[in-house]
Design brief:
alpha+beta; 38% strand
């Protein structure tokens, strides 16, 4: 299994699926809607798209680690 870090989340996928997602993410671009405060209540939004400089972080985990983590399930909130 492969663990992928997407922002602040980590997901686990079969290796084949993780590679497909990584290939798609490599082609993805960043998007942002930015609020621009203007004088005299002339507020506007601007929209921006640019190349994604982020790297796709992935690591392999063994089947034993995956099964143990699967049994543990979602952690309790403290």
């Amino acid at each position: 299994m492969m663990v992928m870090e997407l922002g602040y989340n980590s997901i686990v996928l079969p290796i084949k699926d993780a590679l497909a997602v990584a290939e798609i993410m490599q082609r993805a671009e960043k998007y942002e809607k930015k609020y621009n405060r203007g004088a005299d209540s002339n507020n506007t939004y601007s929209y921006h798209v640019w190349a994604n400089p982020d790297e796709v972080v992935m690591k392999l985990i063994s089947d034993d680690i995956y099964r143990m983590a699967k049994l543990a399930g979602q952690p309790e909130k403290n």
